[in-house]
Design brief:
This protein is α/β, with parallel strands linked by helices and about 280 residues long. It has 2 domains: about 90 residues, Rossmann fold; about 120 residues, Rossmann fold (3-Layer(aba) Sandwich). Helix content is about 40%, strand content about 15%. It contains 9 helices and 11 strands. It has a 6-stranded parallel beta sheet. Strands 3-2-4 form a 3-stranded parallel beta sheet, sandwiched between helices. Strands 9-10 form a two-stranded antiparallel ribbon. The chain is globular and about 50 Å long. The mean pLDDT is about 95. The chain binds 5,10-Methenyltetrahydrofolate (GUE). The site of 5,10-Methenyltetrahydrofolate has 18 residues, from helix 2, strand 4 and helix 9. It holds the Pfam family THF_DHG_CYH_C. Belongs to the tetrahydrofolate dehydrogenase/cyclohydrolase family. Homodimer.
Length: about 280
């Protein structure tokens, strides 16, 4: 029996808990989403983040810039939001148009408002194990594992992918939860031999259908971070159907990690509003 982990249900619980805490706060936590250009997928993601902000009872501060915006224009918007006391969290939606330098812009966000956990300072705090805001997708994966009673301490975890947004911080968080962590990537020789060691396999490679039954140890927990729009609908990096009877549990796409990313953004915004910043 392979359990499909209901990420939507876990995300709903997390969001309800955030909303209950927000109800007791005055002033309300505020999140600013910054969208540059008109990539349709980005527009959909930002819209669902803003909906989640309103449903949590928080204040929504959205800024939209044209695809032609310059580095200085985006930087000026970020600086204004950084100085605005009603804005507790700032999210610069990625990817940015190709003429902009994302790392330099992300680092305009003060660590105390970095609800995406992507600034150099937040990454450093995570690497050192010091308090700070953590990236939403990896912290959502940890939350999902905990919700299913999956033990991390002493377990073997393999992360496929090493991006700054997901793979790298995911490996750090699993280490801090006392897993023995291996990071695999597109140059890993004999990927299946590596992933078959995993009790917890987190796939964030961005390659549609990369992982199948041959990659999975019987009884493993498989977390699919991939998201691909195909003719057959949204699919992940994992060939889910093949894992029936092999994995103990798998996250679906959609309805797995994606909703958790948004739930953890609400958690981070609440934390940014209520805690002494890093
Ligand atoms: N600065 C920044 N921070 C991000 O966290 C960030 C980003 N940029 N750029 C793009 C990625 C992607 N991402 C997702 C969020 C929610 C779903 C989500 O809710 N997915 C639903 C399906 C939604 C749909 O139908 O498309 C699901 O998996 O069930 C997916 C992906 C956040 N990202």
């Amino acid at each position: 029996m392979t359990v499909t982990i209901d990420g939507k249900a876990v995300a709903q619980r997390v969001r309800a808990q955030v909303a209950a805490e927000v109800a007791a706060l005055d002033p309300k936590p505020g999140l600013a989403t910054v969208l540059v250009g008109d990539d349709p997928a980005s527009a959909v993601y930002v819209a669902s983040k803003r909906r989640a902000v309103r449903e949590a009872g928080m204040s929504d501060h959205h800024r939209s810039l044209p695809a032609t915006a310059t580095q200085a224009e985006v930087a000026a918007v970020l600086e204004e939001l950084a100085a605005d006391p009603a804005v507790h969290g700032i999210l610069l939606q990625l990817p940015l148009p190709a003429h902009l330098d994302p790392d330099a812009l992300i680092d305009r966000i003060p660590a105390a408002k970095d609800v995406d956990g992507l600034t150099t300072r937040s990454a450093g705090l995570l690497a050192r194990g010091e308090p700070g805001l953590r990236p939403c997708t990896p912290s959502g994966v940890i939350e999902l594992l905990e919700s299913q009673g999956v033990k991390t301490r002493g377990s073997r975890a393999v992360v496929v992918g090493r991006s700054a947004l997901v793979g790298h911080p995911m490996a750090e968080l699993l280490l801090q939860h006392d897993a023995t962590v291996t990071v695999a990537h597109k140059h890993t020789a004999d990927l299946a031999a590596v992933t078959r060691e995993a009790d917890i396999l987190v796939v964030a490679a961005g390659v549609h259908g990369l992982i199948g039954a041959e990659h999975v140890k019987p009884g493993a927990t498989v977390i699919d971070v991939g998201i691909h729009r195909t003719a057959d609908g949204l699919q992940g990096d994992v060939r889910r159907a093949e894992l029936d009877g092999v994995a103990a549990r798998v996250t679906p796409v959609p309805g797995g990690v994606g909703p958790m990313t948004i739930a953890m953004l609400m958690v981070n915004t609440l934390r940014a509003a209520t805690m002494d910043g890093p």
